[in-house]
Amino acid sequence: MLAGGTTPMGGTPVRSCSSSFVGRSQSARSLRVLTRVGNIGTASSFLPEYDNDDRTDETPGSPPPPSTPADSDGKGDGNDGAYAAILLAAGRTVDSLPLDMVTSMKSSVLPPDVLSRYIALTKSPLSAYLAQFPGFRDRLLGDPSFLLKLAIELGIGICTKSTAEYAKRGEKFDSQLDFVAANILMALAADFMLVWLPAPTYAVGGSKSLGARGSVIGKVMNVFEGCPENAFQRVPAGYRPFTVTQRVGAVVRNGIKLFGVGFGASVMGVAVTNGLVAARCALDPSYVPLNAPQDVAVMSATYGLYMATSSNLRYQVMAGVLEERVIETVFKGYPGVCGALSFALRTGNTFLGSLLWVDFIRLLRLQE
User: Fold this and answer.
1) Which band of pLDDT confidence, cut at 50, 70 and 90, is reported for residue 170?
2) Are 298 and 305 in contact (CB under 8 A)?
3) Is the model's pLDDT at 363 over the cut of 70?
4) The whole model's pTM is what?
5) Which residue has better confidence, 352 or 367?
6) 37 lies in a domain?
7) Same-domain pairing of 158 and 244
8) Alpha carbon distances (Å) from 142 to 151, 244, 292
C-alpha cells in the first residue's frame, strides 16, 4: 500500500485519506457536542490514538472488546460516538461515572447498552445508592429486576415462615415471639444468599478476584475466577462465551458458598434457640420446651449440605433458565407480567424446598 491510503495499480481500492479524516472528525464532533452538557473530565481520552490503531490492551480475566462498526480499512472509532450520544441524551458527564466504567469506555470494552442500563438504574435513589457497592452494581447490570426478585423472595420467606411458626406454636405464638423472630431472621439470611449468589451478573472490566490471594480460602476460591455467577446465565455483551468447565465451576463454587451460608445460619439459629430455651427454663421452672435441644454441629452440617445441593441447583435453574431465558424472553417489555410470573415461580419453589427439606432430614434419619 502506498502512502495516503491508496493501492498500487491493479490493487484492491480502499478508502482514501480524506474519508478517513471525515470519520475521525465525526467522532471529535460528538465529543465537542458532549462537552456542552458540563465538565467532560477525561472525555478527550475517548478519541482513538491513531498511531497505535493495531494495539490492544487486554488483561487476563477481562472480557474482549466487543465487535464495533469499523471503517472500510478496518480501523473504526469504536463506541466513542455511541457513548457520547448516550451521555448527552441523559445529561450526564464522564466525571459522574465510576472510574472502572470510564476505563472500560476508553478502550471500547463497555457495551453501550450496559452504559444505558447503568444510567437508567441510577435514576432511582435506592438503585443509585446500591450501585455504589460492586456486588449490587454487578447484579443490577446483569439483571435490572434483581431487587424485585430479592423483595419477592424475602416477602415469601417472611409469610411462609411466619405461617409455619404460627401453625406449630398455636396459642403460644405470642408468648414465644423471641423464638419466632430468631427463626425468621435466620431464614431470611439464607433466603437473601439464595437470591444473591446465583443471580446473573455483569462485571465491568471482567471477572474479579474472589478472595485475597495470600489466604487459603482466597487461593481456593480464585480457582473459580472467570466462572459466571449463574451456571445457566446468558453470556454478557462483550464477554467470551463461558466454557462448560466454567459453567460447572459456577455450580461448585456456589455450592461451597451456600454450604458455608447454611452452616453459619443454622449454627446461629440453633444456638440462639437453645440459648433462649435455657434462659426460659432458668427463669420459669414450669416452662416445658416444645422440642429437645438440637445438636448444633449435626443440624448445621445437614442444613449446609442441603443448601449446597438441593437449594443450589433449584435456584440456579430458576434464575438462569426459567426467569432469564424463558420468562424474560417470552414476555420481554412486560415487566408486570414478568414480576407476577417470578412471584408464582418463587412461591412454588419455596413450597417445593420445604417438602424436600423434610424428605432430606428423614433420609438422613435425623427426624422421623
Assistant:
1) confident
2) no
3) yes
4) 0.71
5) 352
6) yes
7) yes
8) 17, 20, 45
